[in-house]
Amino acid sequence: MQRFLCVPCGHTVSILSGGRLTYRPLEVQRLQPYFDAQAKVSAGLDPPPEPIEAGCLQRAWNRFLTRVQSLKDTFGQMLPSALHTGQQLWKQLRCAVGTAEDILRFLAEQGKCSLLGDYACLRPARSGRSGAI
C-alpha cells in the first residue's frame, strides 16, 4: 500500500489497491459472495474462508447491518422504501447498482461514504487547507 505524507498538515494519505476495502483486511471479491450468501442470493464463498477471514467477513456483515438506514438514505429513490433488513437492502443494492465494487464506487463518488462506514478519507477536504501532499 502506498502512503504519502502531507508535510504542511502532517496527515498521511494511503492509496488502496483496487478491490480493497477501507480499514478492512478484506478484498471486495471475497466480500461480495459472503454478503450474497448472508442475503441468500448465492451459496457463498468458494473456497470457504479460513477462520481469520471468516471473522473479518462476519464483522463486516455485522457492521453493514448497523448501516441499513444510513445506506437507504444515501441511495434514496434508487431503492424501494420498504426495506427493513440488511438482507433486503443487500439484494436491492445488487439489483439496482450491480457488483460490490460498483456499490462501493457509487457510495464513494456520490455519497462520500462507504459500505461499512463514513470515513474521513472519503469526505472532501476542508477549505483553507493548502491541498499540498
Order of helices and strands: EEHHHHH
Largest sheet: 2 strands, antiparallel
- Estimate nothing, just give the exact number of structural domains: 1
Mean pLDDT: 85
**Strand order, biggest sheet?**
1-2
Strand content: 5-15%
Distinct helical segment count: 5
Shape: globular
Helix/strand class: mainly alpha
Q: Give start-end ranges of low-pLDDT stretches.
A: none
- What's the total number of strands? 2
**Roughly how many Å is the radius of gyration?**
16 Å
Give a written overview of the molecule.
This protein has 133 residues and is mainly alpha-helical. The chain has one domain. Helices cover 44% and strands 6% of the residues. The protein contains five helices and two strands. It has helices spanning 28-38, 51-66, 68-75, 86-96, 100-111; strands spanning 2-5, 12-15. The protein is globular, with a radius of gyration of 16 Å. The chain starts with a strand and ends in a 22-residue tail after the last helix. The mean pLDDT is 85.
What is this structure, in a nutshell?
By secondary structure, this protein is mostly helical. The protein has one domain (22-119). The protein is built from five helices and two strands; from the N terminus they run ββααααα.
Task: Tag the structure with descriptive keywords.
5 helices, mainly alpha, 133 residues
Secondary structure: elements and pairs:
Elements: E1 2-5, E2 12-15, H1 28-38, H2 51-66, H3 68-75, H4 86-96, H5 100-111
